[in-house]
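Appendix B. One record, verbatim.
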Amino acid sequence: MKHINGWLLLLAFCLFGAVAQATPPNIVFILADDQGWSGTSVAMLPGKDFSRTRGFHMPNLERLAAQGMVFSQAYAGHPKCECSRASLLMGRTTTSLNAVDKRARTWSAPASESLANTLKRANPAYRAAHFGKWQWAQSPESMGYDASDGITMNEDGDTTDPDDPKQSFGITRRAETYLEKQVKDGHPFYLQLSYYAPHNKPQALAATLKNYENMRNPVMAAMTEDLDTCIGKVCAKLDQLGIAKNTIILYMSDNGGRAPALKGGKGTVDEGGLRVPLIVYGPGISSGAYCNTPVVGYDILPTVLDFAAPGFALPKGIEGGSWKPLLLNAGKGTVRRPIERLVFHMDTEVEHPQTALRKGDLKLVHYWDTKEDFLYDLSIDLGERDNLATKKPEAVTTLLAELKAHVRAGLGEQKFAALERR
């Protein structure tokens, strides 16, 4: 009888462990606005000061990086915020989604296939919320969010409240209230905090600004610290509620910006416009790890689903891939996507309509109006200074054909022909 009781006890422990491991994780996605690749105090490349901003004070983000994983080659889905956010929502390139400029209203995928709607379909226990900048005519509710600030635009972040610059603290308070409710109700959740900071115009607490009076751009530095303070408040609330150990936190920017080591900036498909900071913390993720595998914003949908509902069949047309294998293997490995390329397109509000395709270490940038091609090996040319187009014509021919085929398939023959006529 003692042996039987012992086996029963062991079985109970095993079952309890299996249930505990099967508990779906909470996910908090913190999205900064217009923060360039080197725009935080965390080095995106280990030990390289040019990949961070030394004068910024972001201890909470540094703590997340020390306890989680930093991605050195993370890309936004587009070099401007609206299209990048659409790409995030739907897990597709902006060309395939037909959302290549901020006036796009007829996307090629239905709202039912958005991240939040797909997540709740995969696991009905989940709840979803979005607070902060939205920047699209489609409502957060149509995209599956149970709670939100509604349809908001850039100007909504510019407040007159001295205690809530860029709405950073208000967004954080709403997040804290939401977290409390989900824990009380017993729901796993996906919470996206789309902060307006550090987008222009800069705003900061007067007390924070005093710390940077001797800096070249004191308000930007202070606004960035205020954002970091809010990150700390969210993390503290997760700890207080006892759910931090079962919560994945992602920190990313919606598009690139000024980064001295990179070419270009916001609005171009050069590395400066696309490469962004990315830090991920959570259960099973190695502390202090760096990942050098290229990842992109439209990977977030399949990554969230892979953690929340492993094995769930994603909607047809999703172009991103899951980071889960990287996150659980100290950053080593690859991302499996339906298409083995990264594609970025920008044809408005820019001098030259342009598309970039990255495959492996090679990146091709094509100007539609001048028909110029720029080929870079990013493994040795981070700053995109050495155009290899004349040295590797075969690679240009192959990549350009793939680039054009992708754009034609996404935008359709009429729009593609208009680009070719530029």
